[in-house]
Please model this.
Amino acid sequence: MADYTLNILRPSVNNLSARIFVRASGLDFEEVDVWGKTAEGEYVEKYPPHLTPTLEDPALPRGTLGESCAIMSYLCNKHGLDQLYPTDPAERAMVDNAMLYHTGTFYPYLARATYPTLGFPQYAGEVGPSDAGDDLKAQAVKDATEALADPLNGFETFFLGDRKFIGGDTPSIADIRFAASFEFLRSIDYPFSPRVEQFLSDMEEALGEAYSEPAADVRGYVESVKSPA
Model:
């Protein structure tokens, strides 16, 4: 029996972050695809927010942990994976800053820009899932897509700067989180800057199959929605 169980949805970039991480970390894990099961009793009992990914570990207070950034941070802290989550306070602060910036600023724009194309449920209270007309929904997607330029510039100029990765010479968990999300922007053919394209290439080269193997699931899904049969 594996040390950890990671419950995932294969087409999801949020899940992709954790999937890349557990492979890059070298930890002993089993991966369970819970597509279509997250609203069922067994899963909801383990994790009432009924989201993915989730990590199952008896050492946790509730036996289960959600949110990819929390999962990665927890496992790094537990196993001393300093190469992925630096212990130097200043370096760790930058990684934490990047992950919070991703979650609070970048990802909401990404979701509004890509979810309609990807066919994912959109967030309640916004134009996308409302009864608004198609013209307003299209404008919301356009506005979100245009708004992505600002956080992407922040990622490139501040979080990367003159470094190869946010983590320096090697990828950190914040690099994994951003790179995974960038995969979804391929669904709308978003024009990345040369620096961001280089970052993505560097990530896959640095992590090898730990990146490319789970990323293939997301890329396959993206291609399927871009070119429906």
